[in-house]
Amino acid sequence: NAGVTQTPKFRVLKTGQSMTLLCAQDMNHEYMYWYRQDPGMGLRLIHYSVGEGTTAKGEVPDGYNVSRLKKQNFLLGLESAAPSQTSVYFCASSHRDRSYEQYFGPGTRLTVT
Amino acid sequence: AQSVSQHNHHVILSEAASLELGCNYSYGGTVNLFWYVQYPGQHLQLLLKYFSGDPLVKGIKGFEAEFIKSKFSFNLRKPSVQWSDTAEYFCAVTRLYSGAGSYQLTFGKGTKLSVIP
Questions:
Q1: How far is B7 from chain A (nearest CA, A)?
Q2: Residue B46: CA count within 13 A, CB half-sphere
Q3: Which whole number is the average pLDDT over A43-52?
Q4: How far is CA A19 from CA A1, A28, A57, B75, in A?
Q5: A69, A72, A78, A109: least surrounded by Cβ within 10 Å?
Q6: Phi, psi (rounded to 5 degrees) for A32
Q7: DSSP, res B78
Q8: By 3-state DSSP, what share of chain B in percent is helix, strand and coil, each rounded to 5?
Q9: DSSP 8-state assignment for residue B62
């Protein structure tokens, strides 16, 4: 199993540009999450999904949108990137009955100039 | 809202020294507690977890943590650290109940551990 994979690994955007981060998991997990990690801030939940076609806001959802069209994929979109969105983005997934045990992807380092 | 506090931002130890990283949480109900580790350039990995029962839990690589309910604490310990333990350590908590919040982990801000050979 590949576990949780993320593409791309690195990206540089200019202010105002848009992009989509892709997360894929092959563990048949129902739940998926997007976090951002900033120095001294730990991980903060952006959006999450409890199943295909269902998404919800986390702690810091502003400026991001998500979609879960397929169970194995969870997309994070930035419509108009801002320098404040420079961060490392982690995707995670978990089984519905063990939602507290999350498996993380390798992360995407995004820089917005 | 629940919160997690990690007392130390950066800890520097020599090899073979003992380690204790503090973690306190704010929620008063039943909780699940976790420690995650992030080695340089890698993603987060689960180090250990507490759900119920024996408050002293053992994880991988010789780490252990003690849950003290009266102090709302879940401190991470290791008797003798190695250079390979250099990493960032995150404490996390989630509440044990069925509902919208049960699957949301709240993370502390992390503690960087640097072990000097």
A1: 12
A2: 16
A3: 91
A4: 27, 26, 19, 40
A5: A69
A6: -140, 155
A7: E
A8: 10, 50, 40
A9: G
| DSSP symbol at A13 | E
Distance from CA of B64 to the nearest CA of A (A): 18
DSSP reduced 3-state for B74: strand
Please report which residue ranges of chain A form alpha helices under DSSP H: none
For residue B103, give the DSSP letter. T
Query: Model confidence at A85, in pLDDT bands (50, 70, 90)?
Result: very high
Q: Which amino acid is it at A81? A: A
Q: Note the Cα B117 to chain centre separation in Å.
A: 23
Q: Do A104 and B102 touch (CB under 8 A)?
A: no
Cβ atoms of B37 and B88 closer than 8 Å: yes
Query: Is B99 touching A (CB cutoff 8 A)?
Result: no
Length of chain B, in residues: 117
Asked if A71 and A30 count as a contact pair (C-beta separation under 8 A), the reply is yes
Amino acid at B115: V
The size of chain A, in residues, is: 113
DSSP state of A67: E
Section A32-41 average pLDDT: 91
Task: Let me know: does A51 contact A66? Beta carbons within 8 Å.
Answer: no
Which of B21, B32, B44, B48 should we substitute to test contact with A (largest number of A Cβ atoms within 10 Å)? B44
Tokens found for residue B90: 């995150």
State yes or no: pLDDT of A33 exceeds 70. yes
